Amino acid sequence: MFSHEFESEPTKGFVKQWHSGSSIITEKTPTVVLIKPGGNELEAFGYDAENRYKELIEQGEHEGYYYFQRFKMKLHKEMGDKIDLNMTLKDEMGQTLPAINVFAMAIEYLVNDMHDVTKDRISGVIQKSEVHWVITVPAIWTDSAKQFMRKAGEQAGIDERKLSIALEPEAASIFCRHLPVEKRIDTSNVCIASFPAGTKYMVLDAGGGTIDITVHEVQPNGSVKEIEAASGGGWGGTLVDQAFEELIIDIVGKKVYQDFKRKSQKIGWTFGAISK
Fold first, then answer.
1. Tens of pLDDT along 10-25?
2. Which three-class secondary structure state does DSSP give residue 73?
3. Which of 25, 95, 191, 202 is the least crowded, having the fewest Cβ atoms under 10 Å away?
4. Among 22, 19, 43, 16, which residue's Cα sits nearest to residue 120?
5. Is the pTM of this model over 0.85?
6. Is residue 269 a part of any domain in this protein?
7. DSSP bridge partners of 69
């Protein structure tokens, strides 16, 4: 949005619409990347990566490609160990690539995609040097994980002076301060932005990967202060997917499941074939 639009309606920013390829349009896309053989070039991202990988499998041309799903959460699971720029990630078939490269390719795709979409929507050209990027991370991430994301952004081509790392619940809190709360007090609409200094409220960020909980307090100058350290864990919606996969393994056994996965390498909808 333009600055004058933000001043009048700060919640009306543009959100990209992602197309799944099956008439489904969403404001979120799967954390999936498909990387070409050699591991140095991105083939596709999100829904496009899922669909392209299916095509390659059907054509028998998928060998050598790297297919990563939910790699953000894979980084989270490594938090017990020291996160460094040399750590690797395993794709769905056990192949490995440097984690920094996988994250950098995903970020670079999003950077380029934003510029492409912007060029189609407004006249004139927005230079990359004019954009300040904000990468959000779960509040429970360690300093080393945040630094890892910063390095991934820089490797993706973002100038370090044009890059900020923000905690997801803090970003959500800033956004929520402009949203009306469905509640009436003394016949007046109440919104977080109108809360007086000293008001405390909780932000619960329940996502697909992690759940973060923070408590903020409105300051006299209108800003917010964190009064309770962020807490949470990897308890997001993807645990439902994981539980279903574990159920299938309990039914057919791990070896049968792994053999099936290697032979078919289908995505999502192949679970129905296992039950047969």
1. 777 788 889 887 778 8
2. helix
3. 25
4. 16
5. no
6. yes
7. 32
